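User: Show me a protein chain along with its predicted structure.
Assistant: Here is one chain, sequence first, then C-alpha cells.
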Amino acid sequence: MNNEKSVEIELKLALPGPEAEEAVIANIREQGYRVKELKQVRNIDVYLDTFDWSLMKKKLALRYRTADGGAMYTIKSMGAIEDGIAKRMETEVLLDGPVDSPAEIPLKQIRNLIDGIIYPRKLLEHIQVRTDRRRYRVVSPEGAKIELAFDTSSFSSRGLHKPRRTQKLHELEAELLSGPEAALSSLSSLLSRSFSYPPSSASKLESAVERLKVLIPSKKPPEKYTVRLDDRLDLTVRKILAYQFIRFREQLPGVQRDIDTEFVHQMRVVTRRMRSALRLFRDAVPQSTGASLAGELEWLGSMFGAVRDLDVFLLNLSRFKEQIERFPAKKKEMFDNWIERHRSTPFKALSEALESPRYRDFERRLLRFLEVSLPVRPRAPLAVKLVRQVAPVIIKEKFDAVIKQGHRILENQKPKQFHRLRIQMKRLRYACEFMAPAYDGALDPFIERTVEIQDCLGEVQDTVFTRGFIDYLFDDWKGKLIEPELVFILGEIYQLQGEIARERQGKFGKIWERFATEETAGQLNDILAGQRAD
C-alpha cells in the first residue's frame, strides 16, 4: 500500500524538556486554536545508507520505521530549515508488516529511487532513533489543519559503528496537513513570543550523526593531515600515509564481515595510494623503510586484488540478470554456488592475511614510522625539500608520461597499451590528489578530467580480465562434464565483453581529444605556478 506525499512542510522547534508540552497546549488554546489529543505512539526508525553515505551526500535520507505493529519506508530530501520551517520532498510506502532485514528493501518503488545513486554499493543500517511522540490534531484560527507532536528521541549507532548513546533530544514538530503555509509561520511567531524556543536547524538524522560523532567518509583529509606548500617532503609523505591508513582501518570491519564488495575495493585503492606515495616521494623516505613498507603493501594489494577481480566479474554478471533468471531454479542455484566457490578461496586467504602476524608486524612498523619525530639532518636527499619546490616537477613529469603513452595508443590500440596508460593516469591522478590541498582546490577540475579518462580505461581493463577469466575456466573445464547452460551464458558474457571493450575504446578517443591539448597543459602550468586557472 502506498501513501505518497510529494512535499512535507513542518515547523521544528527545540524544547528544553517534556514539561514544555503542557504550557504550549494551554497557550495555543488561549489564542483560538482548536486542539484534540491523539493516541501517543513510539516510532523506531532505522536510517539506511551505503558505507560512505551516498544518499546523504545527495541530500537524501532513507528511513525504515516501525510503529504500532506497522512498518513503512520513507525517503525524503534534506533541504535547509529556515526559521524552524522545513520544506522537503517525501515519499512514503507502507508495508504489510515489519521485515527481518530492513537493508534488503523489498519495494521496487523505493529501489527505483535509490538504485541509480547507490549502485553497486549495498545499504547498511547506520543509526536507530527511538521517538516517543505525543500527538495533537490542531486547527488554526485561519482553518489550517496541523498535526502537532512533542517528541522525545534517543539515538544509538548500529552496524559497523561503535556502540554509543547520547542524551535525549526534545522537539516540537508541527506538520501542515492542509491549509496555507503561512499558518506555520503564524504558529512559529506565537510560540517564539511566548516561549523563545529556538528553531531546530537539523533533521533527526543530522542530529543523530552530530551527537553520535559519526564520521562521514570523505576524500578530503582533516586539517591535521592536509598537505601545505611549505611542508617538508618527509612530513608530506607521513601526512599522506597516515590519512590513507585511517581510511584503510575504516574499511576493515566491512571486509571482515564481507557485507559489501565495495569495502574490498576501497581497501585495495588505499594500498595503491600508499604505494604510490612511497614511490613518488622515495627520495624523502629512508630507503630501507620505504622498500619494506612498499613490499608489504604490494603483498596486501595482491590479496585484495584477487578478491576484487572476481567481484568485478560478479558485477558484470548483473548485465545478464535477465538471462540468468531464466534458468530453472536448480540450475540457477548451481550457477550461484559455483561463483561463490571461486570467490571463497581468495577471500579466505585475504581474511587470514589480515589476521596474520605478518600484517600486525606491518601495522606496527608503519605506525612507528609515522609517529617518530622528523630527523634534524635526514639522510634521504629530498627530505627537507618543500612541496612548492617539488610538486610542480613531479606533476609535470607524470603529465608528460601520460601524454606520451596516449599518443602510443592512437598509433596502436591494443589492450596492453590501454592498461599502461591506465597505470600512468593513476600515477598522475594520485600525485595531483596528494598535492591538491596545497593548491587550495585549484587542481580539482584537472583531477576530475583524469578521473573521467581513468574510469573509461578501467572499464576496458575490466573486459580484459573478464574475458581472461572465462578463458581460464574453459581451459580448466576441458574433459569435464559441465552444464551446457553454464557454458552458453559464459560464452554470451565473453562476446558482450568484446563489444563493450570496442565501445569504450571509441569513447576514449573522444575524451582523450579533449584532454591532450596545449590548453590543458597551459592551465596545469598556471596552477602549479600559483595562478588559479579559469
